[in-house]
Amino acid sequence: MIPSIRTSYNQQFTPAQYQAFLDGIVADTGVVPAFRIAETPVFVPAALSSKLVQACEEIVDVLLRPDFKAMTKDAIPPSLKVPHENDHPHFIVIDFAVCKTDEGSLVPQLIELQGFPTMLAFQEVMARRFKTHFNIPATLSNFFNDLDETSYYQLLRDMIIGSFAPEEVILLEVKPEEQKTRIDFHSTEKNLGIATVCLTALIQEGKKLYYLRDGVKTPVQRIYNRIIFDDLQQQSEVLGEHVNLFQDLDVEWITHPNWFYRISKYMMPFIHSEFVPKSWFLHELPVVPADLENYVLKPLFSFAGQGVLIDVTPEDIDQIKDPENWILQRKVKYAPAIATPTGPAICEIRMIYIWQDGAARPILVHNLARISKGKMIGVGFNSKDTWVGGSCCFFEF
């Protein structure tokens, strides 16, 4: 999106460089990615960088409202509430489509947000490998707030491990080796020294949790949570015996599972910004828009794009039995903003925040990008294209 850098990158690109880049990722993580990694990063010009940061900070201002918990009290399904919710999330991710105004300037539009971690460790690996194998100008950065590789990982250690011993902190997931994000689990283990543990491997004694580390029963003091709880609920019966995480347990959560629901699509009707598409809870919709083709219907409780209706009809709205669990959102038109040797591509940019205990507000630390040439943006929808897939951004400030 920075024309001079894009042109230079495309001209200098070779398949051998790309293969060396992928091989470097495997060498760093010990894992072959389970999703396609794009041939290119995204080069974000200063004007768009500024708008992205502004959009994020406007959203953060909503999170800081003193009535935020009251405002989002219905965001958590009663069957998914977990005890001991803390005052704020430790991680926030905010996803934007890159769009164009009528005048032709690039502008972000909010797509989704979550009070949940993303691929925090792997994104640093990917960015570092792009810088190793390609000519990425030193004037651009994948980090924010003056962070670098060393200070970024120190921040992650402080956030995730805190005052505990690394062996007392676990990354918790359901069947982690079957997850597409498993490369991040391995990167986290390597860089932070904590173990990835499947829910079915937890041992409960009273309110205490344990796991076997090299055959030794080890206490779990803190959980770096990667489980999406509505997904867990759907799988619960086929998982076999496992600890019930909805009970009162003597453990700290990073971040607490309830924040996944509070900071989600549920927030969108409350955010009033030029960078946030107009949204309504379906049961509060004053009138069905005459131009429904310009709207998308989203279930509040789903993930990975499941259940989203892109081409909405009045009949679709009439058939919704639980309108309080859906939002109608004005459609976002992605701009074909990235020029590639095999045609223009669209992209989505995820801005990653960390909120330390005791801090007045969260800080922006890193990013993730997804590049696509199809109707759907997720990395799972681009298996036949090139110059698409998971990526990262380098920002001009």
Question: Characteristics of this structure?
Answer:
globular; alpha/beta; 10 helices; Rossmann fold; single chain; 26% helix; 397 residues
Secondary-structure map:
Layout: H1 3-12, H2 15-29, E1 42-44, H3 46-63, H4 68-71, E2 91-100, E3 106-114, H5 120-133, H6 149-160, E4 169-173, H7 182-192, E5 195-198, E6 203-205, E7 208-213, E8 216-219, E9 222-225, H8 229-239, E10 252-254, H9 259-262, E11 279-281, E12 295-299, H10 314-318, E13 326-330, E14 346-354, E15 363-372, E16 389-391, E17 393-395
Parallel strand pairs: 1-17, 4-5, 4-9, 9-10
Antiparallel strand pairs: 2-3, 2-14, 6-7, 7-8, 11-13, 12-13, 14-15, 15-16
Helix pairs in contact: 2-5, 5-7
Tell me what the structure shows.
With about 400 residues, this protein is of the alpha/beta class. The protein has a domain at about 160-255: Rossmann fold (3-Layer(aba) Sandwich). The chain contains 10 helices and 17 strands. The strands form 5 sheets. A 5-stranded antiparallel beta sheet has the order 3-2-14-15-16. A 4-stranded parallel beta sheet has the order 5-4-9-10, covered by helices on one side. The protein has a 3-stranded antiparallel beta sheet with strand order 6-7-8, with no helix packed on it.
Q: Largest beta sheet: what is the strand line-up?
A: 3-2-14-15-16
Q: In CATH's first tier, which class of the domain at 161-254 applies?
A: Alpha Beta
Radius of gyration: 21 Å
According to DSSP, the number of beta strands is 17
Which of globular, elongated, flat, extended, rod-shaped describes the shape? globular
The biggest sheet, with number of strands, parallel, antiparallel or mixed sense and barrel status, is: 5 strands, antiparallel
CATH topology of the domain at 161-254: Rossmann fold
Low-confidence segments: none
Strand content: 15-25%
- The level of helicity is 25-40%
**CATH architecture call of the domain at 161-254:** 3-Layer(aba) Sandwich
